[in-house]
Amino acid sequence: MKRLKERIVKDGKVIGTEILKVDNFLNHQVDVPFIDEIGKAFYELFKDAGVTRILTIEASGIPVAFAAARFFGVPMVYAKKFPNAVKDESAEHLYQSEVYSFTKQASYNIRVTKEYIRPGDKILIIDDFLANGKAAAGLADIVHQAGAEVAGIGIVIEKGFQNGRQTVETLGYRIESLAIVDSMGENGIVFRE
Amino acid sequence: MKRLKERIVKDGKVIGTEILKVDNFLNHQVDVPFIDEIGKAFYELFKDAGVTRILTIEASGIPVAFAAARFFGVPMVYAKKFPNAVKDESAEHLYQSEVYSFTKQASYNIRVTKEYIRPGDKILIIDDFLANGKAAAGLADIVHQAGAEVAGIGIVIEKGFQNGRQTVETLGYRIESLAIVDSMGENGIVFRE
What we know:
The structure is a homodimer. Chain A is of the alpha/beta class.
C-alpha cells in the first residue's frame, strides 16, 4: 500500500534497527480517515475469503479491525490480554492461549469469550504489527479451539527482518501485509517491493 | 438514546446490582454499525463545542471514540494504561495521571505523549462507562496539563447509582451520557428518563 509506505517514511520514528514507532497515526493518535483506507485495503485483499468475523487483540489492533469490519459488514472481536501467562483453568466460558513476547521476554495470556467465535466462522485475524508472529499464532490457536477457520491474517506493518511470516505460513495461513519493512536504521527504512 | 437502552435490555448481562456486561456489542465483540450510531449521537450532542481532538483510554473506549472521531473529522487519541500507579518521572515526553479503580481497589497510571494534545486543543473525552468518574477525571487532568480545554465528556453508559457525574460536574465539565442506569437487579434495569 503505497500511501502507507509514504506515511511510515514521513511520520514513523525509527529507534535503533528494530523499533518503528507510528504513534501519530496508528497506535496512540489515530488518523481515522487513513485507518479507514487501511480497513478498505484489507477488504480488497480478503473480500472473497468468506469472512464472517474479524478478530484482533487489544489495544492497538482495535482501530484497524474496526475499520475493516465496516467494509466486510461483519462484527469485530478483540481478544483481551492478561499480563500473567497462567491460564484461568476455572474459566470454562473462555478460549485462552499463551503468547510469548520477545520485546518483554515474557508470556502473556489472551482470552476470548466462547460465544464470540462459533464453529463454522471464517475469521480474519488483523493486527497492527507482525514481528515474530506469536500474537497472530495465539489468535489462530483460539480460532481453532472454537472449531472455526482462519480465513487469513492481515497485518498493517510487517517487520520482514523477523520470522513472523515464516511462523504463520508454516501453520498454513495466508498472510497479507500492507507494508513490509526489510530493514531500518541510519540509512532510513527499506521496504520490500 | 432509545436504541441503546433497548440494546442494553436485550443484550446486557446484569451480575448482582453493580455489574453490567455489554460484551456482545460494545466491549469485547463490537457491533460496528451500532457503534457508528453511537459515534453519531456524540457528534449531535457536541457538534457546536469546537472539538479539535477526541481522547479516550485503552482498550474499551477505542471503538466508540474512533466512530465519533469520524463524524467530527478530528483525530482520536487513546491514553495508555499502566498497571503500576507509579509515574515514570524520567519520561518528560509524557503527560501522566493516576486513576483509582474501585473495581480493582488499586490505582493505575495513564499516559499520553505530549505532542498529541496541544495547548489550545478542545478535547472531547469519550468512554464506554462512567462509574466513579476517576478515569474521566484522570483524562481531564491530562488535558489541563497540556494547556488544552475539556470540551465535554461523552459516556455511553453511566451508572447513575455511583457518583461519577457528581465528580466530573464538580470539576466543572459538561457531561452527556447516552444511557443512565439508575438501578439494576432482579427486577431488571431501570433507566433515568
